Amino acid sequence: MPELQYDLHLAGSMTFGVTMLIFLVATFWAAKRRALSMTGLLGSLAAIAMVGGVFAIRWIDQAQFPLQSRYETFLMVLIGVGIGMLLFASRAGLPGRVDARGGFCNAVLAAGAGIGLLFGLLALREDFEPLYRPPALKSIWMTIHVPCLIISYGFLYVGVAAALATVVPFLRVGGTAVQWDDILHMAMSIGFPFLTAGLLMGAVWGQEAWATYWGWDIKETWAFITWVVFLVYFHMRMVPGLRGLASGWVVVVGGLSIGLTWLCMHLLPESLSSLHVPVPFL
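^ thats the sequence. predicted structure below, dont judge the formating
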């Protein structure tokens, strides 16, 4: 991996780690919450810029949108998590909100930054070499499909963090289950439409590339299962008696499903026939 890309990637990952600590301090230090929240948001913006710089360099070097290798997918996840954090902060009224609600909103952002740090470090274990992209993967639909899914994962994992706070009392950081459930729903209301759009764009891309809207590929199937799990959440939230703890656990299951879809499906024997298996660069 070129030194500049490595340095930018490592700096971006470490910046996510620093912002995680800043948001954690803002969670408990009400007197300095506004200043700390602003600092954390600026740090998140810097982390996005650094990771985006790596992505831009690879785009220029390859002369095509770099979303074929697992490492490049990690980069998109980091950007998606960062954008999700900023949009969530804007929706939650940060950095201006300094009350108790502002405290647990900072806790959600700390969780998001922690995910950014984790994924940034995991990406360093991947092969950095660019992969060959056959003509089927050069479609404009693929360029839309993948970012939609990655951005949705950023918001949905914010929802998963809020769901854990909803169902596990000691993770609530001073907020109530109802307050965390509201934050959960806010994140899900943004992430789920992106997930839906990503699946639809993938179907259109499949028809263009392989003359089929849906082939029951193992990744397609698990992505659909994930979509169904989150759809169940929205249904349960409208049913009296199921909103709150029960629907929160469904979101936690959805978070596990995302992890299985993205990180684990390639380990199964069925993935050998998958259209989503990367092809080495030729």
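The helical segments are 3-28, 33-62, 70-92, 100-123, 140-167, 177-210, 218-237, 245-264.
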